[in-house]
């Protein structure tokens, strides 16, 4: 060729340079020299020939060369296909969602070349392909299926002894026929497989074994595993005449909440039955839930089932069994299918019933990606779906299998609870759970060592509690927590985040422990360390979130100190919380949260004042809190917890009104609680806390009715109240508050029964109440209030026994009650209430002992009563509400004591002295079987009159008691006289002080009179009055 | 995945049912593949068109439903399964030809299928790349590569410096490779043709 130079290898560029040239743009000036060289160098041209022939496409060139252009113009058909696809696509999504149900299609019958029918066949084919869980239909599988399709190409007339009626469903794996068994004259379903490939055969056998094991009404039953003439296996199963859940959903869209919950519950029971027999279903979805004509549910298709006793390795081959929208997250992450995975799928079924759509939609790949990154969308109910059902669904579908219901039965039980209108177990995910979950998901973001160890420490505390390990263990964990708090402070750039997480951690741990017994001291030390940490971390001047954390920590600490009986420390903590929060509240625009926070603090302060009988203070705090709650409502309506707090606030205001003697206003507040809650929750969905306030308000109204003497109203109220408390307790048996409420309702029922002279019921209920309070007190030995409530219950039970005539039993219980309150008072000397209550028990013990003739021990008890009352008086700061009754009781005790001392002297010495002391001597004489002397005293005071009501009542009631006692052993001719005297004295007492009726009814002294018509008239007359 | 993301594999993109651009491309590319195979198997034009249509619809659904999974097998093989099944059913309905089961075995006619698949894919790719480049570049490529003429001859015919012929060929080939990959790649069939 002209112009070609003799090659000179030393001038030629390297192969790499030529390669590079091919990648350069032709206009690149840097290559111009090289280009000129190439144009004249044959060697380089050869190299370039070689370089440009090296292509992975080289081998295809020939094939292309043989058929140089398209065989035909396909433009038109391409357009047609495109149009069909576009038309089909939106539907496609729907079909994906509700696909794969066994329809009554006639797939295997010869079809015309109608595309639609062919498509249907293919959908069916694909379904089972996917169902076999083989990744992609391997050629083998498909061909196999095709070959076998030939053998079932026409509907066989019979298989074995079974007459084939129709095809229920069909796919690549096999066909399900509706058949008739002439031997037993019933319809059956027959499942065949296409060919006898070992994989399919195993699957069929596994399904047979699975359903063969399960004995349940709610699972399709196995009749037999058989062979046809050619040795092919098939399963004979129960035929369910109805439709699949997916067909139902496709037909009606979504179900109403009741039906949805009922169907999901029955499906869960079926799956639970399978679990109980050691079978995991692994492919739970609406298409495998059958609904028969009577609405009964049967779980079907155990083709992917496995057995719980198998080691994981044996079932490992099935990487991703099941159907994409119902896969559980752990499976996608490579975990094993467990009971929890089936529970998850049941949650999916519940959601699909409620919404008509699968929980996860999109292509399977998208679903898997989302599951792999833990993105299970929350059920966005838009208020359409009852909250409790959302909670149940969330719990069943928790990402972490350990957060789910432990068993399908638990899920079914919770659904059933909801269906019955009872409170459910499932609750929204707590923020600690959220934090833990986010930490698991984003391990890198936990580089914050302080935060992580704070969490670890918090968990350690919880774990230590949970396993009941030693206290030192707990303290170690708490101190680790403190260190963590300090090191968190050093993580400067993430301080805000750390604080937020820390606060959540601490408070969540608190909440976890809150309802557990025996954790008060632990919680106190945890909070104290948290406060120390928070105050250390707080930058100078403070920042709002830290203020809030600190304030709330002080609040909770205060509450715990109060529960431990340390009023001064508790009040101090609360005041500190109020101070911090008020500054914060005033510093910024009012938002609902800060209103709520401040209201909570004020409320606790109100409680503190109320417990110390500072009613004015309590009322002021409660009113402020109520006002803040109202503002919070306006700013952010609809938070259920707000209604709870608001209604409780009303109740407490009622309590204050009641304590100050304004019963009408108290009634108004209580009634307002009932009407407001009833209006707000007309749809019947009430969170347990709010429901509780119903019962509390009812309880208060009961107390009011009792004090008015309106027994019928009281009975009505306490019955309603007890029903609610029993329901709440049943749903949450370990909740201390509900335990307490129910015990109170029992105690009050006892009181009511006592008023109605039903001693049997009174002692029975009182005893139940005492046992309930005893259990609570023993579970929480540090809680002063729990101990005190137990003692009060004992005191009341003693009262019931005493009225029922068993003064020995009463004496023992009063002694126990008094001992408990003495102990409490010695531990908490600032709490005068304990002294007062203890004194009351001693007083009654003393009176009873004297009444039994046990003068010495009676006097001893009265001594102790006086001692206690004096203490109470000293600590009461001249509060007339305390001082007056204490004074009166103390006088009574002193009179009793003085009287007892006089007994050994001659009657004549004291008969004309103080009438009260004198008549009490008479009373005591009657108790020590010196009845003649007692009667002499009673005769002496026959026409006693006094302007002092108390003295009047005292003298005449004791006088009546002496006659009543005398009546017991009196000779016939004296009985009329004694009775007359007793009744007339009682009448005088009642005339002087109508309230005395209650005591009169309770007192055992007049028992002998109870059958007397005159006595009954007296009671009736007073009651009416 | 969006329609704009055109560098990623077509077979991945079409999993998004909303990506109509990709679906259109898919139909353009795979219609000739299936059609030619069916014609090669002896079908009349009208039947081949019907079956092609059915096949593509089924494939579209199948991809949506995840029956095809690249990590477990090639798209090419799966498409073959679908086409052969259609073909088989066609024949058995017509009862026109004796069914030779062997023909349905995995590799019975696989050589032919692979050839048709690859060459049709390549043809589509070439058509698409050709539309992107200047006529001269296309000519330089088609003469040197498709017609296998020496570069020096092409240089003279096109009155184009020989280095530019090489550059044009190399550039076109590179684009073509990436286009073929985009159209047909699932798990690297290009590496194992």
Structural notes for this entry:
The complex is a heterodimer of chains A (1025) and B (193). Chain A is mainly alpha-helical and 1025 residues long. Among the domains of chain A are: 1-51, no CATH class; 91-238, Phosphorylase Kinase, domain 1; 242-419, Transferase(Phosphotransferase) domain 1 (Transferase(Phosphotransferase), domain 1, Orthogonal Bundle); 806-902, Serine Threonine Protein Phosphatase 5, Tetratricopeptide repeat (Alpha Horseshoe); 904-1025. In chain A, 65% of the residues lie in helices and 5% in strands. In chain A, the strands form 3 sheets. Chain A has a 6-stranded antiparallel beta sheet with strand order 1-2-3-4-6-5. In chain A, strands 7-9-10 form a 3-stranded antiparallel beta sheet. The longest helix of chain A is centred in the first third of the chain and has 23 residues, at 75-97. Chain A is elongated and about 155 Å long. Residues 90-154, 311-319, 429-456, 459-474, 487-498 and 536-542 of chain A have low confidence and may be disordered. By secondary structure, chain B is mostly helical. Chain B has one domain (10-191). Chain B is built from 9 helices and no strands. In chain B, helix 3 packs across helix 4. The relative contact order of chain B is 0.11. Mean pLDDT of chain B is 77; it is low at 1-5 and 187-193. At the A-B interface, helix 1, helix 2, helix 3, helix 4 and helix 5 of A face helix 2, helix 3, helix 4, helix 6 and helix 7 of B.
Give a brief rundown of this model:
The complex is a heterodimer of chains A (1025) and B (193). With 1025 residues, chain A is mostly helical. Chain A is built from 42 helices and eleven strands.
Radius of gyration computed on alpha carbons of chain A: 42 Å
Distance between the termini of chain A: 139 Å
The beta-strand count of chain A equals 11
Mean pLDDT of chain B: 77
Low-confidence stretches of chain A: 90-154, 311-319, 429-456, 459-474, 487-498, 536-542
Q: What would you say the CATH architecture of one domain in chain A is?
A: Orthogonal Bundle
Strand content of chain B: under 5%
- Mind telling me the CATH superfamily name of one domain in chain A? Transferase(Phosphotransferase) domain 1
Q: H/E series of chain B, N to C?
A: HHHHHHHHH
């Amino acid at each position: 060729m002209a112009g070609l130079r003799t090659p000179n290898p030393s001038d030629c560029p390297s192969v790499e340079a030529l390669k590079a040239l091919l990648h350069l743009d032709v206009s690149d000036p840097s290559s111009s020299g090289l280009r000129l060289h190439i144009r004249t160098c044959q060697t380089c041209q050869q190299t370039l020939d070689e370089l440009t022939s090296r292509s992975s496409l080289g081998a295809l060139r020939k094939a292309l060369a043989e058929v140089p252009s398209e065989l035909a113009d396909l433009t038109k058909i391409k357009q047609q296909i495109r149009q069909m696809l576009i038309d089909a696509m939106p539907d496609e999504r729907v079909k994906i969602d509700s696909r794969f149900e066994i329809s009554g299609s006639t797939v295997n019958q010869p079809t015309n070349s109608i595309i639609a029918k062919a498509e249907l066949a293919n959908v069916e084919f694909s379904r089972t392909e996917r169902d076999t869980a083989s990744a992609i239909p391997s050629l083998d599988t498909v061909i196999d299926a095709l070959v076998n399709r030939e053998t079932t190409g026409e509907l066989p007339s019979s298989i074995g002894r079974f007459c084939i009626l129709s095809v229920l469903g069909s796919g690549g794996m096999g066909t399900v026929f509706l058949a008739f068994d002439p031997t037993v004259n019933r319809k059956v379903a027959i499942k065949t497989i296409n060919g006898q490939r070992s994989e399919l055969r195993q699957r069929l056998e596994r399904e047979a074994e699975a359903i063969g094991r399960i004995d349940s009404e709610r699972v399709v039953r196995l009749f037999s595993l058989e062979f046809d003439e050619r040795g092919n296996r098939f399963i004979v199963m129960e035929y369910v005449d109805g439709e699949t859940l997916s067909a139902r959903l496709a037909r009606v869209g979504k179900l109403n909440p009741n039906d949805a919950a009922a169907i999901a519950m029955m499906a869960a029971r079926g799956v639970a039955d399978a679990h109980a027999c050691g079978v995991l279903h692994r492919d739970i979805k609406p298409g495998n839930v059958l609904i028969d004509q009577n609405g009964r549910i049967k779980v079907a298709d155990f083709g992917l089932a496995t057995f719980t006793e198998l080691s994981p390795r044996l079932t490992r081959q099935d990487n991703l069994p099941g159907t994409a929208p119902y896969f559980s997250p752990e499976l996608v992450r490579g975990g094993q299918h467990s009971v929890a995975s089936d529970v998850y799928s049941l949650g999916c079924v519940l959601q699909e019933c409620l919404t008509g759509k699968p929980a996860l939609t999109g292509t399977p790949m998208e679903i898997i990606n989302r599951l792999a990154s833990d993105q299970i969308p929350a059920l966005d109910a838009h208020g359409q779906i009852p909250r409790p059902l959302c909670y149940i669904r969330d719990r069943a579908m928790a990402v972490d299998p350990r957060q789910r219901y432990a068993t399908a039965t638990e899920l079914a039980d919770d659904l059933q609870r909801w269906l019955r209108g009872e409170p459910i177990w499932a609750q929204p995910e707590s923020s600690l759970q959220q934090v833990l979950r986010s930490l698991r998901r984003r391990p890198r973001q936990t580089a914050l060592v302080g935060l992580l160890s704070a969490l670890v420490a918090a968990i350690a505390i919880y774990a230590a509690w949970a396993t009941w390990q030693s206290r030192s263990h707990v303290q170690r964990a708490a101190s680790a927590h403190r260190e963590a708090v300090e090191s968190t402070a050093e993580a400067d750039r993430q301080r805000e985040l750390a604080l937020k997480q820390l606060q959540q951690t601490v408070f969540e741990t608190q909440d976890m422990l809150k309802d557990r017994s025996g954790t008060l001291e632990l919680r106190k030390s945890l909070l104290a360390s948290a406060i120390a940490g928070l105050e250390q971390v707080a930058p100078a001047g403070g920042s709002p979130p830290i203020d809030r954390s600190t304030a709330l920590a002080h609040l909770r600490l205060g509450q715990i100190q109060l529960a431990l009986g340390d009023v001064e420390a508790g009040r101090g903590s609360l005041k500190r919380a109020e101070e911090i929060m008020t500054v914060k509240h005033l510093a910024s625009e009012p938002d609902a949260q800060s209103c709520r926070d401040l209201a909570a603090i004020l409320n606790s302060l109100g409680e503190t004042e109320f417990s110390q009988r500072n009613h004015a203070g309590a009322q002021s705090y409660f009113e402020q809190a109520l006002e803040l709650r109202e503002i919070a409502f306006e700013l952010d309506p609809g938070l259920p917890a707000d209604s709870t707090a608001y209604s409780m606030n009303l109740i407490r205001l009622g309590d204050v009104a009641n304590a100050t003697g304004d019963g009408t206003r108290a009634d108004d507040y209580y009634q307002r609680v009932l009407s407001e809650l009833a209006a707000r929750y007309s749809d019947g969905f009430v969170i347990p806390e709010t429901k509780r306030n119903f019962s509390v308000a009812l309880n208060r109204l009961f107390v009011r009715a009792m004090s008015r003497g309106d027994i019928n109203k009281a009975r009505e109220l306490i019955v309603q109240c007890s029903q609610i408390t029993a329901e709440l307790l049943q749903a949450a048996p370990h909740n201390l508050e509900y335990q307490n409420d129910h015990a109170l309702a029992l105690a009050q029922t006892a009181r009511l029964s006592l008023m109605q002279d039903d001693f049997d019921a009174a002692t029975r209920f009182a005893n139940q109440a005492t046992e309930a309070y005893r259990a609570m007190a023993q579970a929480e030995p540090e809680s002063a209030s729990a101990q005190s409530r137990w003692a009060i219950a004992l005191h009341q039970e003693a009262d019931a026994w005493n009225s029922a005539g068993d003064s020995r039993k009463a004496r023992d219980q009063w002694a126990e009650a008094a001992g408990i309150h003495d102990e409490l008072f010695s531990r908490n000397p600032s709490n005068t209430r304990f002294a007062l209550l203890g004194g009351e028990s001693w007083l009654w013990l003393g009176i009873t002992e004297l009444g039994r003739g046990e003068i010495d021990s009676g006097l001893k008890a009265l001594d102790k009563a006086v001692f206690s009352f004096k203490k109470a008086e000293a600590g009461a700061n001249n509060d007339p509400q305390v001082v007056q009754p204490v004074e009166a009781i103390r006088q009574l005790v002193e009179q009793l004591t003085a009287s007892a001392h006089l007994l050994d002297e001659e009657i004549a010495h004291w008969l004309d002295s103080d009438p009260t002391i004198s008549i009490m001597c008479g009373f005591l004489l009657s108790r020590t079987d010196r009845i003649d002397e007692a009667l002499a005293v009673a005769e002496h005071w026959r026409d006693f009159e006094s302007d002092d009501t108390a003295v009047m009542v005292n003298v005449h009631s004791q006088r009546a008691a002496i006659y009543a006692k005398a009546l017991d052993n009196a000779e016939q001719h004296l009985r009329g006289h004694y009775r007359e005297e007793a009744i007339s004295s009682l009448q005088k007492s009642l005339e002087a002080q109508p309230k005395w009726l209650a005591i009169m009814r309770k007192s055992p002294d007049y028992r002998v009179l109870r059958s007397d018509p005159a006595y009954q008239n007296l009671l009736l007359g007073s009651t009416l009055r | 995945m969006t329609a704009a993301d055109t560098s990623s594999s077509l077979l991945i993109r079409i999993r998004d049912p909303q990506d109509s651009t990709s679906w259109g491309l898919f139909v353009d590319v795979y219609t000739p593949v299936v059609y030619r195979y069916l014609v090669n198997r002896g079908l009349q034009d009208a039947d081949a068109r019907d079956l092609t249509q059915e096949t593509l619809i089924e494939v579209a659904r199948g991809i949506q439903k995840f029956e095809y999974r690249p990590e477990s097998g090639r798209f090419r093989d799966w498409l073959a399964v679908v086409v052969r099944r259609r073909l088989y059913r066609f024949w058995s309905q017509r009862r026109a030809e004796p069914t030779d089961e062997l023909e349905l075995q995995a590799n019975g006619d696989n050589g032919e299928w692979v050839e048709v698949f690859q060459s049709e894919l390549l043809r589509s790719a070439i058509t698409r790349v050709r539309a992107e480049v200047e006529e001269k570049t296309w000519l330089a490529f088609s003469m040197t590569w498709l017609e296998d003429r020496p570069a020096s001859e092409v240089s003279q015919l096109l009155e184009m410096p020989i280095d530019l012929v090489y550059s044009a060929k190399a550039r076109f080939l590179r684009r073509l490779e990436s286009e073929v990959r985009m159209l047909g790649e699932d798990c690297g069939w290009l590496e194992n043709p």
